[in-house]
Amino acid sequence: FIGQGLANIISGVFQGISVSGSFSATALSVNSGARTRFANITAGITMGVILLLFGNSISFLALPSLAGLLIVVGYRIIKMDDVMMVWKIGPIQQTIMLITFSLTLIIPLQYAVFNGVALSLLMFVARQSNKVRVMEWVRRPGELPIEQKSPAEVPAEKVLILLPYGSLFFAAAQTFEEELPNVTAETSRSVVILNLRQREDLGSTFLNVLDRYGQELREQNSRLMLSEVSDEVMDNFIRTGYMDIFGRDNIFHGTERVFEATLEAQHQAEKWIAEQKEQPKP
User: pTM (2 decimals)?
Assistant: First the structure.
């Protein structure tokens, strides 16, 4: 590049035209067996001789040569191993691949690729939004904790520990809300603990779902607690004001010890339920 810059400066003194190197031409020379910089000089001299001797015939070689080059490039782009791998993954991947390939025959290649990427993103969002599950974490004295399907309704005077699985982004918020146990008139003096371990980003749609669910529990003299809350989510709660909405006593910061915050939340929930039992129902 230094030599090229000096050459352009000197050529400018003699009213010459500035030139630049070509990475593609260099790659072509290397692939053709070039070993030194004299390869470009040799190629230039050879091309000059060919143009002088066969100038009229050279004009007929451009398009056929380009066509042959495109055929070779197109053949090398097709990787049958990758095609077969995508085909074996599942029907959704097969459909996207066939649609993208069909579009390449109808519209320009770049637009076909853009449409294929957009279709893949839409399918990803649709699939992830339906993969949310909410499981109940049951811990009995002297036994290892087990996971089971969450109940349809929140029972009275019980601590319910829930673990959400799947991506909790905006498109999955409705599915997550439907997976939560229903709060009924029989729900009273109960605590629902939602484990948010490894959740570093919660959108406004998901927070609105938690806000509505917490409000339903409060109307039935129950509470919603959030355990294993990360630093990022804590900062999010403070910035958006949800720290005060959920209540600082209902949020338990996560630690490096797995389920330590959840066990602390369970202890506080059981203590609160015991205190509520001592009071007469309104």
Answer: 0.62
